Amino acid sequence: MEVVIQPDAGAIATLVADEIERLLAARPDAVLGLATGSSPLAIYDELVRRHEAGRISFARARAFMLDEYVGLPDAHPERYRNVIDREIAGRVDFAPGAVQGPDGNAEDLVGACAAYEQAIADAGGVDLQILGIGTDGHIAFNEPGSSLGSRTRIKTLTSQTRLDNARFFDDDVDAVPVHCVTQGLATIMSARHLVLVATGSAKAEAVHHLVEGSVSAMWPATIMQHHPRATVLVDPAAASRLQ
Ligand code: F6R
């Protein structure tokens, strides 16, 4: 695992956008993995800037989202599908239908999870997966205790994650859904390049476990230590507990 410490989120975003620009130049039909939450926002802004400057096209690319809340109305602004459309997909030139996400409102959630796994496989797998990390060490919504061999499935969010995400729901923790559908740890590990970004001291403990801890389902991100190509980009505050 390569750990890169950068001064701030802007510098991290530049490096990740460089990598995505290189990937799309070499393979315009590459498959990207998109995360939601605050961590990737500077990356998405940088990608939009480069797209507007004519440097990057997503016209032949495809993308898969990591996760989705269960039970939010289709038009809810915090439904991850809407967040991704707002933050990146709707601001660049992805073809219609090229960005897919798990369906958190499917009648048959179990069947929808299996179909999502199949869709990723049919696309040839993810070339570059952007990841954030939860304060409890989750990646996607694989909360502590998640099977290291898990695939896309329904999960229950921890109280900590619901508290952390209440900021997106007018600070009303009760408005944060209890359940989600999420790519599993094995699904994420199938991507060819993992790029995790973390900033701020609230992430320092999780980053410490990710980089220096034992691989354990209790700190799910630690599975990344087994990935042949994992890059972790952090600012000094997120790196503050590294030895
Ligand atoms: C979101 C996701 C989560 C977030 C994590 C960090 O799609 O997969 O794992 O990356 O909760 O969230 P932020 O970036 O908001 O701190």
From TrEMBL:
Active-site residues, Swiss-Prot/TrEMBL: D67, D136, H138, E143
GO-annotated molecular function: glucosamine-6-phosphate deaminase activity; identical protein binding
Start and end residues of each Glucosamine/galactosamine-6-phosphate isomerase domain: 11-227
CDD domains the UniProt entry points to: GlcN6P_deaminase
Entry keywords, A to Z: Allosteric enzyme, Carbohydrate metabolism, Hydrolase
Regulation: Allosterically activated by N-acetylglucosamine 6-phosphate (GlcNAc6P).
Transmembrane segments: none
Catalytic reactions on record: alpha-D-glucosamine 6-phosphate + H2O = beta-D-fructose 6-phosphate + NH4(+)
Site-annotated residues for Part of the allosteric site: S146, R153, K155, T156
Biological processes, Gene Ontology terms: carbohydrate metabolic process; glucosamine catabolic process; N-acetylglucosamine catabolic process; N-acetylneuraminate catabolic process
Listed name of the protein: Glucosamine-6-phosphate deaminase
Species: Georgenia subflava
Name of the gene encoding the protein in the UniProt record: nagB
